[in-house]
Every structure is written in structure tokens, then in C-alpha cells.
Amino acid sequence: MNRNGRLMAKIGAALALIILAQILIADGNGAVVGGFAFAWITALFLTRRAIWHDGSARLALIAGAGLAVVLVDDPSFLGWVLFWTAVSLAAILPRHGFDDALAWMRRLGWHAMSAVVAPLKDAARLSMVRQRRGPPSGGIRAIGAVVALPLVGGVVFLGLFASANPLIGQTFSRIVLPDPWAVAWRTVFGLCALVTIWASLRPSRRTTRASRIDERSIGMAFEPGVATLILSLVTFNAIFAVENALDIAFLWSGAGLPAGVTMADYAHRGAYSLIVTALLAAVFVLLALRPGSAAAANLLVRRLVTVWIVQNLLLVASSALRTLDYVDAYGMTVLRLSALAWMGLVATGLALIGWRLLARKSASWLINGNALAAVTVLVAASVVDLGATAAAWNVRTTLARGKAGPPLDLCYMARLGSSSLVSLAMLEQHAKQPGLRDRLAYLRWEDQTETADAQTDWRRWTPRNAKRLATVRAMFGTNAPRLRSAPDGRNCDGLILLPPKVEVRSAPPFAPAPQTPAPTMPTPKPLTPGAQQ
């Protein structure tokens, strides 16, 4: 197949994928997203021969197929981003072998930015090629010149006849035009799909020109003397030793805290700040102790750094224990579960930094090791439903400990949507108090109804939600539960809202009418002797 044939094949594949995206995923977020991902992989494999002969590109495409399976089961934004990354790697790797993850992060960033103008550039190149070949005998311009006059004239005359003839006017009035907002959304969505798909079919050659990380330039930017490093490391180790000693005394041993400080407060306040501390320590070690430098060759510096890394690992472990203590007091959430995973990544990075210093590994080895750990955690987060994991943990803890366990936040459980459906049903089955059972039945039925409604739309149907619905229907059936009357609605945790209090204001007592004084008769004046005559 010549170059023009390959270009036309890519144009046809792009148009087919855009139409498929408009049909499948423009108005839905279900298993069809994974189906579209498989179609994208197929088009890329058929139109890019270079992927066939490159082992790394084939491996990236296989990873993309695995992520497409994840999108079929439970589509998510994280899963889609990982799939796009795998597809982009498969498209670019034939042009440049994999060296280190940091350089490829820059290449992928440039690939995403250049995708916006890639269709315009290719359209301009195609137009220039046609102009060099001379004026075409046919084509769009020739067709437009032929049909322009009859088309415009026909529209004008139809408009005049519609205003003159009521039958034609009524016929036109029955034509329902599409919603302009829907047309605008479809147009924007199609353009976004075109930009994303075309960049994978014809990636820009500039994406592979990004250079690798220059390890020497980093070391020259910040390279203190050996004496300064020794003094700094001694100071840092002493400060870290105080913090670790306090954590061992109060957090790990379970000793009583001073008055006014609760264990929950002690656990919550330091969890995230200690992680920032460990990250700053890792950055310091990376910048100050470049392999091959005079500081890295000093035996005392290497020992102090080793002790400091061990102290940082203990600090991260204390942060994880603080978070677990806070979870034990207030329950599990997606954010706290993500924080624990992040702490595991920080600990892995610290261990890799220490091993890099001791074994004198390169910066690329360290970057690739951390990237592999991060990708592993992200892929696990896209496969596992963190909301369902948090809800299941809270329910198991509540059933095991009862009132001695952490308080169950039913409002948070309701916000998790279909992720908490099975957990709410399990808790409802074991609820003994009628009031609590009524609240749980209300929340479970609301969640079950919303999930069932979403499953009726083929664009939003997912196998994971189908399994959840089947599990809950096997427990309670499909009939609505008998709930207590709630004329004023319910709270987010299922509590029945009380009717609003109506304040009755008593009328003020009637004031007595002012009494008008009785008319007084004028007193007669005494007659003078002269007047009696």
C-alpha cells in the first residue's frame, strides 16, 4: 500500500471511530466505553504497520487491551487516562525506544498538546499537495460550483411558497429541528474525538525529540560541600530522632497522651505533614547526593544518609499508623484509602533512593522504578472500586464491633452511589432496630432504583453493576420495601424529617377604651340685686 493509500485508510478509520464514539459514548458511560476502546486498538493495529515490528509498542498495545477490559467492567476517568497513555505509547514507541519515564512523561505531554493542531496541519499539507498537482477536474470545489445556484435558489423559492401556500407552510411547521445545544455538544464531542484519535494514527515527529534527564546538570544546580552535608545530616537526624521517639512512645506503644490531646487528634494532625517531610527529605537526597559526586563517595555521608532514610521510612510508617488510628475512630473513606496507598508509594520511593545510593544506580533506574510503582498503584485503583472497598470495610467493622466501633456515616454511604449498594443491603439484613432498618431500607432502595434505571440504558450498562443488582435482588427481591411515612421527606442518612414548627403568635389583649368624661353643666352665676329687678 502506497503513502496515499495508508493516509486514506487512516482517514477512514478516524471517521469510523468518530461515528462509533457518537453512537456509543457521547450519551453514556457504560460497558460500551470498553467496546469503543477495543475498536480504537483494532484501528491502530491495522493502520500502523510499525507497531507490528516493535516489541515495546506491541506490549503497550496489549496493556491497552487489558485496560479496555477494565473499562468494560467499570469505566472510570482514571481507567480512560491509563488507556490513552497505553495507546499513545504504542503509537510513539516505534519512533523512539523507551529510555526513562521522565522523558516519556514530557513526550506524552507534547503528544497531547500537539494533537490539537495535528488534523489542521495534515489538512493543510494535503491541500498543498493537491495544489501542486494542478487544478482538479472534479472535487469539492467543482461540485460546489455546480450545485450552489440550484441549492440556494431552491431554498429561496421554497421559503416564498411556504409563506404563500398554507399547505406547504403547515408541512414545514411539522419539521422538528434538532436542539441547538445538542448539536453544539455533538460537534464539540466529535472534534475532541477527532483530535484524540488522529494523534494516535499520525503522531507528530516532534514528540520523540524530547531529551532525557541530564543527571549532571541536576547535581551542578545544587551540590553543597561535604562538611555542609555532614553538618546538615547530623542536624536532620537529630530532629527526626525526636519525632520518631515521640511516635514510638505514644503512637506505637499505646501510652497515654498528655491532658488535652486525644489519640484521634494526634493521629489526624500529623499524617499528611509527615508525608510532606519525607518527600522533602527524598528531594534533598536526590539533589545533594548524586552518584559519582564527592559527597556520595564519602563513607560518613553515606552512613548518615542511610540512617536518615531509615528514619524517614519509620516516619512514613508512623503516618500510616496515624491514618489507620483515625480510620479506627471515624471510619474508612476513599480519601483515607488513597492516602494509605500514597504513603506506600512514598515508602517505596525512599527505599529505592537508598538502594540507588548504596548500589550506585543511575537516575534513569530510579525514575523507572518509581514510575513502575506508581503505574502499579494507579492500575490497581482503576480495577478496584475504592468506594465499594471503603463501604465494605465500614460495614464489616460495624457488624463486628457494634457500638464499640466507629460511627457509621450513612450520608457518606449514600453519596457513594452504586458502590455501597451491596454493603447497605448486608447491613440492612443484620439490622435489629426497626428504626435503623427502615433508614437502611430507604437508602438501599434509593440506590437500587437509581442503579436499575441506569442499567436499563444500554449505553450506561456495566457488568459490575449487573452483579451488584443480582446480589441485592437475591437478598430482597425486586419489590419496594414497606417504609414508614415521611410526608416531609428524609435526611441524607434516611432519618425522617419532622414537620416544621408553626409559631402561633397570640393576639395582644384588648386595651380598655378611654372613658370620655360626662358633660358637666355650667354652674349658674349668682344674680346681682340689680339683675333681679
Q: Quick check: average pLDDT?
A: 80
Q: Largest sheet at a glance?
A: none
The poorly predicted ranges are 215-220, 523-533
Number of helices: 23
String of helices and strands = HHHHHHHHHHHHHHHHHHHHHHH
Structural class: mainly alpha
Strand elements, count = 0
Distance between the termini: 155 Å
Compute the CA-based radius of gyration: 37 Å
Number of domains: 3
- Helical fraction: over 70%
Structure commentary:
With 533 residues, the protein is mainly α. It has three domains: 3-125, no CATH class; 216-383, no CATH class; 388-476, no CATH class. The chain has helices at residues 3-24, 32-47, 49-52, 55-73, 77-92, 101-114, 118-132, 140-164, 166-173, 180-201, 215-221, 226-252, 263-288, 294-297, 299-330, 334-359, 363-383, 386-401, 410-415, 421-430, 434-456, 463-476, 529-532. Helix 2 (32-47) runs antiparallel to helix 4 and helix 16 (334-359) runs antiparallel to helix 17. The longest helix has 32 residues, at 299-330. The chain is flat. The N and C termini lie far apart (155 Å). The model is unreliable at 215-220 and 523-533 (pLDDT under 50).
SSE map:
Blueprint: H1 3-24, H2 32-47, H3 49-52, H4 55-73, H5 77-92, H6 101-114, H7 118-132, H8 140-164, H9 166-173, H10 180-201, H11 215-221, H12 226-252, H13 263-288, H14 294-297, H15 299-330, H16 334-359, H17 363-383, H18 386-401, H19 410-415, H20 421-430, H21 434-456, H22 463-476, H23 529-532
